[in-house]
Each structure stands twice: as structure tokens, then as C-alpha cells.
Amino acid sequence: MHQQLQWIVTIMGGLFVAVLSVKAFSMWAKQEYVAAATALAATSVIAAGVFYPSLVSNLAEEALALFSGAGTEKPTDKPSPAPPAEPDGTDVPWTPLLVGLGGIVALALLAGIAATLRVRRRRRTLDRQRHAELEARHDHVRDAYAAFTTDILAVLDRPALNDVSTPETERLILALDAARDARTARDTTDYAARVTALEIAWKAADQHSRKAGINYLAPAERRAVQQARHLLTTALDDAGNTHERHTAYLKAIKLISTIIAVPHEAVAAVEAASRLALPKR
Question: Model pTM?
Fold first, then answer.
């Protein structure tokens, strides 16, 4: 009966040690080093108590004797040596237990490795999701600026957003280049900083161009821009005469080229939208 009870205690203790080991490896994988070290220390103590009870009891008796002062008293009579105890059949077979303990430790190690791999896989997934979100924010600014550069009327209304001599626009162009380079480098931390800087630069440049309008141009240039805008409205009118649209388009482009730099994308968009054709002879 005593042997069976000791076997049960040993098995239950081994399972508890295995659970603590897995927990410790999981904490280590999460970089909770203090908690992991504490769990490993507790695991070692419990394992010693389960698999080496005589060692623990001897240490406890020596500690008790040391603190109580019993170890300093001198015996009056030398006790006769006790006869060696004969085996009573209750000794635990340590070889199977050690083999079982080795199996439990191996399972704990495998569980810890599996937990570490899961944590790393989860981190990679989170990094990919975060990078995808940054790319979406980056694309939002790029698309907004591309929509501006392909809208010639918007360029005429906000010429400062296309003028690199404007400090806000210059910072926007530099932020676009920096975000593009960081995107290909796959450094999420640096890319996040670049995208944030790009969003700030875009907001500042857009607000400045809307506030400035064409008022920062000279009076003659403002009048030319207004005239060119009127001509382009005629050129883009599908209901208009082909000859009139073509003539208005040529006059507008010639007039604009003497005032501001128009993006090639905007010129191409006007040509595609208006479907200009040469007048018939």
C-alpha cells in the first residue's frame, strides 16, 4: 500500500513538474525572464521534493538542528551503531522513475519549443498586418497626390502644391521619397515613422495650397490662370464643338506654360478626357 501511494505521489508530482516547466518556457518565450526564472526555481524545488524525498527531509532536519542549537550539544554517551536496515520491499525503483522523468522533461522541452514557435509565428503575422496597414496609409497619400497631379483644373486652383519652391511642397516630395525607400526596406519601425511624417507633410502642403490658392501669384499671372481655366473648361466640355474645344485646349496649354509648370500627367489626362481631334480641312 505504501509503495502504491508513493508511486501515485511520484506520478502526480511529475505531471505537476511538467506543467510548471511548460509554463516557464512559455514565459521565457514571451520575454518574461523574471517570472520564468521564478517558475524554473519552483519547478526544481518541487522536482527535488517529489523524486528525492530523503534528500529534502535530511536537509530539513539539518536546518532545524542548526537553528534550534541541537547540533552544538555534546552527547554524554556514544550511542551504539544501529544495525543496518533490511529492505522491506517498499523501496522505489529509481530507474523507471528516472526514465519517466526524462520523458516528462523531453515533453516539456518540446512543448516549450512549440510555444516559442507559436509566439514567433504570431509576431510575424502581427508584423505583416502592421506593414499592410502602413502600406494602406502610404497609398492613401500617394493616391491623393496622384489625383491632384492628374487634375489640371486642381493644379490651376492650387498651383503651390505643384511648386517645389514652396517649403511645404518640398517637404512633401522629400517625405514621399523617404516613405517609398522605407517601404522596400521592410523595416516596420522606420516605415511607420516615415508614413507618419508623410501624412503630416501632405496635410500641411494641402492646407497651405488651398489657403494660398492663386493669390501668391502676380496679378498678371492670376489673370492668365483664370483665363486658362476658362479655356480648359471649354476644352473639356463634351457637348462643345470639336474645333472650338481643340482651339481652346491649345490656347490654354500655351497660356499655362508661361506661368506655372503643369505635370505631364495632367496634360495627358486632359487629352484623354476631352478626346481632342485635329480640325478637318
Answer: 0.55
